[in-house]
Design brief:
An eight-stranded antiparallel beta barrel has the order 1-2-3-4-5-6-7-8. It has one domain (30-171). The protein has helices spanning 2-10, 14-19; strands spanning 36-54, 60-72, 78-83, 87-90, 95-104, 114-123, 133-141, 157-171. The protein is globular, with a radius of gyration of 19 Å. It is mainly beta. It contains two helices and eight strands.
């Protein structure tokens, strides 16, 4: 009976508890610095856009142009977008551009790699303005096609559907 009453009393607090997100488990090389705290977690759904062009070896290949994705919060509400740069823009007007610092193959076959990125630049004021590290994990899809990039398709674009979770970190208050 006591457990039942305690459960009833805790119900109003469950949404607040459920919204607290902890650091995800990732390989060590993809871990954000311990001096940073998690400030935002979003789910991205969209496409990785590839263009058929000559590489450094002058052979035609599908080359990443950039992502085109919507960012959703834990309730499924769209709160921003993700596009080439790579750039993440929040609906509050803040944005961050990242630079890859570590990469690891995704555990799921056919998925784009998991990444750790460092913030390279910021714009606007809001949740992304102080972000210093970004993780891309739990990726599904998004790989370039294995074929189809030939002289007849030079300059053509193709989109590969993908989804991923992005975790954004900022310095802990008082951290130097």
């Amino acid at each position: 009976m006591r457990k039942f009453i305690l459960s009833i009393l805790l119900i109003p607090f469950l949404p607040a508890v459920a919204q607290q997100v902890s650091r995800p488990e990732v390989p060590e090389k993809l871990a954000a610095p311990a001096s940073e705290i998690l400030v935002l977690q979003v789910h991205a759904t969209g496409s990785q856009v590839y263009v058929c062009q000559a590489g450094a070896d002058q052979k035609l290949a599908w080359t990443l142009k950039g992502p085109e994705a919507e960012l959703s919060d834990s309730k499924g509400a769209v709160i921003g977008k993700h596009y080439a740069g790579p750039t993440w823009k929040h609906n509050d007007g803040s944005e961050v551009v990242g630079k890859v610092t570590a990469k690891q193959d995704a555990p799921e076959a056919g998925a784009i790699p998991w990444l750790l990125l460092a913030a390279a630049s910021h714009a606007g004021n809001g949740v992304l303005a102080g972000v210093t590290s970004i993780q891309r994990i739990h990726t599904k899809g998004g790989q370039a096609p294995a074929s189809g990039c030939d002289d007849a398709h030079r300059g053509a674009e193709t989109k590969a559907a993908y989804s991923a979770d992005y975790y954004f970190y900022a310095p802990r208050a008082g951290a130097n």
